[in-house]
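step: validate -> pass
step: tokenize input -> pass
step: predict -> running
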Amino acid sequence: MQKYGDILYQEHPVSANHLPMSVDNRAAQFSPFAALTGHEEAIQETARLTDRRHEMDEESTRLLNERYHELLERFAEQPWISLTYFVPDDRKEGGKYVTVQSTVKKIKEYERQLVLADERIILMSDIVSMQFLDRP
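step: predict -> pass
step: emit ->
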């Protein structure tokens, strides 16, 4: 107490040249800031889950091939189908499985692709399931 005894009871000095800082501005000086830009996004990207591509067994492959042949035979009818296929993730390993119901607009046998009614292009190698449905 002896060390600061001479200034302990003096008034707080007020600058004649500068106005006192507002409470909001004082609070902003001590608020947290993002020291590493993009760090939060990187953490969220790492936490985002993806599925890994599953290898199809022999029986599933055989069944899918039968469905492809049936699709070729019934293509003129424009059958309503349900497809489940794998979509690789653009940013990290893995991806997700998507199921869509549609008709097939075009079959590109050489490229091994199906073009759906909504112009979506699906690689045949990504398809894991195909079912024929009654029209909605």
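step: describe -> The first strand starts at residue 80 and ends at 88.
step: cleanup -> pass
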